[in-house]
Amino acid sequence: MTRAVWCEMLKIINEIGGITLFILEVLKTWKCSLSKTFPLILEQISLVGFRSLTTVLFSGFFVGAILVIQFQLMLSQYDATSLLGGLNTSATIREIGPLIISFLLAGKVGAYTAAELGTMRVTEQIDAIRCLGTNPMEYLIVPRFVAIVVCSLLLLVFGLMVGIIGSMLIASILYNINTLQYLQSVPRFTDVWSITGGIFKSFVYGIIVASVCTYKGYNTSGGAKGVGIAVTQSAIYTNLFIVFANSFTSFLLESFQRFFTALTSGGIAL
Questions:
Q1: What is the pLDDT at residue 1?
Q2: Among 104, 186, 113, which residue's Cα sits nearest to residue 152?
Q3: 114, 125, 124: which is closest to 148 by C-alpha?
Q4: Nearest-angstrom CA–CA distance, 36 and 170
Q5: CA 97 to CA 154: how far, in whole Å?
Q6: Rounded CA gap, 90 and 85, in Å?
Q7: What are the b/e assignments for 70-99, b being 16+ CB within 10 Å?
Q8: What are the b/e assignments for 160-193, b being 16+ CB within 10 Å?
Q9: pLDDT of residue 91
Q10: Torsion of the alpha carbons at 121, 127, 130 and 135, rounded to the nearest 10
Q11: What does the pLDDT look like over 96-138, one tens digit per residue?
Q12: I want to staple 213 with a disulfide (CB 3.0 to 4.6 A). Which of 39, 49, 71, 110 is the partner?
């Protein structure tokens, strides 16, 4: 059992190394062909955005509603219902929103991208593109990679807006809390750090989804069975790396916030 665990850990480390080198190659290719890939990037952004927008909006609404119900159950025990709007908005922006949207993006767009690229690899379409004198990284990978990262940020904005609207609606219908009461405590719990943290996490998660899915799809082998394995592995590794990144980014952002708070308050001498 111990040997199996070590083998899985080494496999994950090997995947991280391969994905890191793949990201560097994508960035290098994008830097050298920015003008060529820009129209393709815009096309992929429209495809990824419209493909995920309905799912994100629908899920965001009900996530906001669920959080309101859960927070209300706890706050009502301490007669702190006035804090409902602030706590719910802060939790949605800092944690729940970026996570939910990244999972949805990985499950819908990520799996589709891995399957699409994997099919192109096993049917030798990628080799045909190279034979025609076109760089597959430039034509296939860079547009999809950048589009997924950009759409993760855009979908975060739309998802948070709908989630907050859904939470206000449920608070008004179920608990008779009007909009002004709900928004009154928002500035107390939601500051610049909360918004910055949510955007930063969404950006990191977007890079993870884009890199893992394009990497697994581009390096698929073994025919139709290999495509299935690539899609499965992309889903597993994406969710796993997002959970790891969530812990790391939360600790990093909290450390930065404490440092700058101490710095601005004069607690640290320069």
A1: 56
A2: 104
A3: 114
A4: 47
A5: 12
A6: 8
A7: ebbeebeeeeebebbbbbbbbbbbbbbbbb
A8: bebbbebbbbbbeeeeebeeebbebbbeebbeee
A9: 86
A10: 20
A11: 888 888 888 888 888 889 999 999 999 988 889 889 888 889 8
A12: 110
Q: Are 197 and 91 in contact (CB under 8 A)?
A: no
pLDDT one-digit tens code per residue, 44-86: 988 888 888 888 888 888 888 888 888 888 888 888 888 888 8
With contact defined as beta carbons under 8 Å apart, do 170 and 68 qualify? yes
Task: Supply 167's token pair.
Answer: 């939470």
**What is the amino acid identity at position 155?**
L
Q: What are 192's two structure tokens?
A: 């610049």
Q: Which two tokens stand for residue 223?
A: 């025919």
Q: What is the pTM of this model?
A: 0.89
Q: 172 vs 4, 161, 165, CA distance in Å?
A: 53, 17, 11
DSSP SS3 for 268: coil
Q: In this structure, are residues 245 and 205 in contact, taking their beta carbons and an 8 Å threshold?
A: yes
Assigned token pair, 17: 């190394």
Domain ranges of the chain: 39-249
Which structure tokens are listed for 265?
A: 């308050």
Check: CB of residue 117 under 8 Å from CB of residue 214.
yes
Tokens of 189: 């719990």
Q: Is 18 helix (H, G, I), strand (E, B) or coil?
A: helix
